[in-house]
Task: inverse folding
């Protein structure tokens, strides 16, 4: 696999996984979070 | 241009930039990625959610520690690539950073974002794969120039490290001497010494002669420069300055000869020169 392609895939994987979980963690404590149980009520 | 003018115009020593990578931009991404955990920690404080405070702060610390380890690992790798003969870095810092990133990502996904264990592990493995693809693995093999010189990479790298330490010591002592002529001459000596060390790295077969030479002359040059820098501060003496100038000239010519001899690979002649000049330096009271 060419080095550039490897680096690009690595960058996308790292960006996606880490930023996704950290942003989700932020959303979990943010006041704008929608309560999933509210829709079912 | 005569010989002495040539000697007084040294090329400035420039360390390869790759080893200065610690100041480069590689690896900085990991300092930016966990930034969302800072407002998450603050909001957890605001809502007094103690579990999330611990989760977010620990996760953020894990990412930042991993970023620091990665930067050190990248710097060690750059130094490894710069050298022709060296051992692998002592600690696999890049691998440790990747594992720490995977662990922190899994932990944050599971406890902070509320994913299931399986999904959290998938996130962790994704981050681990991303780290290895983007930054690669740590170098684990010692680098050695091929040839039957009979020295291990450890012995050679130790000899070179010792020589470089002595050269740095001479340069440090040189900074304390307030004499432009001496400063220039000492810098020339250091440049020649570094070129000899470079030749050693290229051809470790010369290490027997170079070891003898470096132990006697480089050590002598270090001691005499350090001694003069010390004495020079306390009192000025014309006799002392004259002797030091004479010794520096001797050392400089010996270094040039050493370099030429290494290039010519003339073992016998060099040994004779070493014996003669050792006696001369002994006579001067340097060693």
Result:
């Amino acid at each position: 696999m060419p080095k550039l392609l490897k680096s690009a895939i690595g960058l996308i994987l790292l960006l996606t996984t880490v930023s996704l979980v950290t942003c989700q963690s932020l959303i979990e404590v943010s006041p704008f979070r929608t309560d999933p149980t509210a829709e079912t009520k | 241009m005569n010989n002495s003018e040539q000697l007084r115009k040294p090329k400035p020593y420039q360390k390869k930039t790759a080893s200065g990578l610690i100041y480069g931009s590689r690896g900085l991404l990991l300092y930016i990625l966990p930034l969302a955990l800072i407002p998450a920690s603050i909001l957890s404080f605001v809502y007094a959610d103690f579990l999330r405070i611990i989760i977010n702060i620990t996760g953020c610390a894990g990412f930042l520690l991993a970023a620091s380890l990665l930067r050190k690992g990248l710097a060690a790798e750059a130094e490894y690539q710069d050298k022709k003969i060296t051992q692998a870095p002592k600690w696999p810092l890049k691998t440790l950073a990747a594992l720490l990133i995977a662990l922190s990502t899994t932990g944050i996904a599971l406890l902070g974002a509320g994913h299931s264990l399986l999904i959290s592990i998938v996130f962790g493995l994704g981050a681990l794969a991303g780290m290895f693809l983007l930054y690669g693995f740590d170098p684990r093999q010692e680098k050695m120039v091929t040839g039957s010189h009979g020295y291990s990479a450890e012995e050679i790298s130790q000899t070179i490290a010792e020589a470089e330490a002595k050269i740095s010591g001479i340069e440090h002592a040189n900074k304390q001497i307030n004499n432009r002529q001496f400063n220039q001459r000492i810098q020339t000596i250091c440049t020649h010494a570094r070129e000899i060390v470079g030749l050693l790295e290229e051809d470790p077969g010369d290490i027997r002669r170079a070891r003898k030479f470096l132990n006697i002359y480089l050590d002598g040059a270090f001691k005499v420069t350090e001694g003069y820098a010390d004495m020079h501060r306390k009192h000025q003496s014309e006799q002392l300055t004259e002797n030091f100038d004479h010794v520096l000239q001797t050392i400089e010519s010996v270094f040039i000869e050493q370099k030429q001899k290494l290039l010519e690979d003339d073992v016998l002649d060099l040994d004779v020169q070493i014996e003669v000049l050792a006696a001369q330096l002994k006579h001067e009271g340097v060693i």
User: Anything to note?
Assistant: The helical segments of chain A are 3-29, 36-40. The interface with chain B takes residues 6-7, 9-26, 28-31 of chain A (CB under 8 Å). The mean pLDDT of chain A is 82.
